[in-house]
């Protein structure tokens, strides 16, 4: 069983930066596609970014491309989300996800079948 724990989020001013991390335990994540999703109040959960297990290919939602960067450190069993140029509309609860079979594109298209989820961390962006 994989457990995913996100780092604490926080309050950031618009235009600022924040890095989230997600540490896995219970199993090595080296063979898992890792991803980030977010859900703002009153809105549906949406895909943010994902990274493959083997070659580190990255896939981003259009709304964050060029501002957010996903990366992973397999030695630390950790995935990161560097968020730059934050906007008020980026405010949400951010969730880490891991799946041993899905590609990043499949994670984006079919999130309901993702094997493992973190409990989420709140990011607030002030204007």
Protein model, in words:
- The chain has 127 residues and is mainly beta.
- It is built from 1 helix and 11 strands, in the order E-E-E-E-E-E-E-E-E-H-E-E.
- The protein has one helix at 104-109; strands spanning 3-6, 10-13, 18-25, 33-39, 46-51, 58-60, 68-73, 78-83, 92-99, 116-117, 121-126.
- The strands form 2 sheets. Strands 2, 4, 5, 6, 9, 10 and 11 form a 7-stranded mixed β-sheet that branches. A 4-stranded antiparallel β-sheet has the order 1-3-8-7, with no helix packed on it.
- A hairpin with a 4-residue loop joins strand 7 and strand 8 (78-83).
- It is globular and about 40 Å long.
- The chain starts with a strand and ends with a strand.
- The model has no long low-confidence stretch (mean pLDDT 96).
Summarize the structure.
The protein is mainly beta and 127 residues long.
């Amino acid at each position: 069983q994989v457990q995913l724990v996100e780092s604490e989020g926080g309050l950031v001013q618009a235009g600022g930066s924040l890095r989230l991390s997600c540490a896995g335990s219970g199993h090595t994540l080296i063979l898992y596609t890792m991803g980030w999703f977010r859900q703002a109040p009153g809105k549906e959960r949406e895909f943010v970014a994902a990274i493959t297990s083997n070659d580190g290919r990255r896939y981003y939602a259009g709304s964050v491309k060029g501002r957010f960067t996903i990366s992973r450190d397999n030695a630390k069993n950790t995935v990161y989300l560097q968020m730059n140029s934050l906007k008020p509309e980026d405010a949400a609860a951010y969730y880490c996800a891991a799946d041993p079979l899905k590609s990043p594109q499949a994670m984006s298209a079919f999130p309901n079948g993702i094997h493992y989820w973190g409990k989420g961390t709140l990011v607030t962006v002030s204007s």
